[in-house]
Design goal:
The protein is an all-alpha fold. The protein is built from 9 helices and no strands. The N and C termini lie far apart (56 Å).
């Protein structure tokens, strides 16, 4: 990657780190660390637009840069808006962060500061494929580009549909304490996470032909690790078991954890 592109990534990191400082101050005032998730999601759209400004100035193919800029912005700001409405406005602090507050005790604010900064660094690392795809010199769209756009449409549409189905299920008071098995949630316990992971392959395909194409391979395995092992499925299912008990245990027995698949017969 050219030195100027590396400098662009570092400047992007500085900007997102500053954003997370602001959000850390917001959480300190509101006692709600969930704003970090909104900031993390929005960071990708901000970085995509920042990288696009660099790519346009560098004389890269306008259509290609615009495609990456627009697609990344739509995914990013849709997710940020969903998280803002679903987890922040009028909602108590997410249980994950309540547990962190309890475990960190008197050092909670210093720990949260570095937690927010870790999110900034992760967002920048995951966003590198955007810049790689924008620096792809091919002026006409290739079969890889079309495949990447198709994956983006399917994955972002699937993620938005899963979010909407879960939100609709939760709105019904009769569903309190029950597990959503509607729509995509019948085939995967975490269809939103699956489609979020799938969407990162769009950037891999859009980057094919760039000098540093291999850098686009960073995001899919990294995001998969966090979903399966760290901040995604493990804490989500731990809280679900506490709140829904046997109903969720039956859901675990019958429904694929991640990749959508036909459910098994329930023992209940």
């Amino acid at each position: 990657m050219p030195d100027s592109a590396v400098a662009t990534v570092l400047l992007g990191w500085l900007g997102i780190a500053a954003l997370q400082v602001v959000l850390w101050l917001v959480q300190k005032r509101r006692h709600d660390a969930g704003v970090v998730d909104v900031g993390w999601a929005a960071s990708f759209g901000l970085l995509a637009n920042f990288y696009a400004a660099f790519a346009y100035q560098a004389g890269m193919p306008t259509a290609r840069v615009l495609i990456v800029q627009v697609l990344a912005s739509i995914w990013s700001f849709r997710l940020a808006g969903h998280l803002l409405v679903d987890r922040i406005i009028g909602k108590p602090e997410d249980g994950r962060y309540q547990q962190l507050r309890a475990s960190w005790a008197g050092r909670v604010q210093s720990f949260f500061f570095w937690f927010f900064q870790a999110q900034a660094l992760l967002a920048v690392v995951l966003s590198i494929p955007y810049l790689v795809a924008m620096l792809n010199p091919h002026r006409s769209l290739t079969m890889f580009d079309m495949a990447g756009i198709a994956i983006w449409v399917v994955s972002v549409g699937g993620e938005a549909l899963a979010d909407a189905q879960l939100a609709r299920f939760r709105k019904d008071p009769a569903h309190r304490g029950r597990t959503c098995r509607a729509g995509l949630w019948r085939y995967s316990r975490h269809p939103n996470y699956f489609f979020e992971w799938l969407h990162w392959f769009a950037w891999v395909l859009l980057a094919v032909g760039a000098d540093n194409w291999w850098l686009s391979l960073i995001s899919p395995p990294l995001i998969l690790y966090f979903i399966l092992k760290v901040t995604g499925i493990p804490p989500t299912e731990a809280r679900a078991l506490l709140s829904r008990g046997d109903d969720y245990r039956d859901y675990q027995r019958t429904t694929s954890a991640f990749i959508p698949w036909f459910p098994k017969r329930s023992d209940a």
